[in-house]
Amino acid sequence: MIGALPLAAIPPEDEALRPEIRAFLQEAVGEIPPERRARSWMGFDPGFSRKLAGRGWLGLTFPKEYGGAGRGAFARYVLVEELLAAGAPVSAHWIADRQSGPLIQRFGTEEQRRFYLPRICRAEAFFCIGMSEPNTGSDLASVTTRAVREGDGWRLNGAKIWTTNAQHSHYMIALVRTSGAPGDRHKGLSQIIVDLHAPGVRISPIRDLAGDAHFSEVVFEDVLLPGDALIGEEGSGWMQVNAELAFERSGPERVLSSAVLLDEWANWLREVGAGEAAEALLGRLIAHLAVLRAMSIAVTGRLVEGESPIVEAALVKDLGTEFEQMIPTVIAETLARPGLVAPGSLMRTLAYTAAIAPSFSLRGGTREILRGMIARGMGLR
Amino acid sequence: MDSLLVRSAQELFSRHASSEAVRAIRAGGSPGSLWGELENSGFLDALVPEEAGGIGLGPAEALPVLIAAGRFAVPLPLGETMLARAVLGGAGEAVPQGAILLGEAYGDAARVPAFARADWVLLPRDEAALLLPAGAAVEDEAAGSPLGRVLRWPEGAGRRVPAGDLLVAGAWAEIAVMAGAMERILEDTVRHAQDRQQFGRPVASFQAVQQQISVMTEDVFASRMAAQLASVADGDGVARLNPVRIAAAKLRVGEAAVRVAAIGHAVHGAMGITEEVDLHLLTGHLQAGRMRFGGEAHWGAWLGRRFLADNTGETLAFVRAQLGPAAPEASA
Question: Taking the mean position of all CA atoms in its chain, how far away is CA A279?
Answer without folding.
Answer: 31
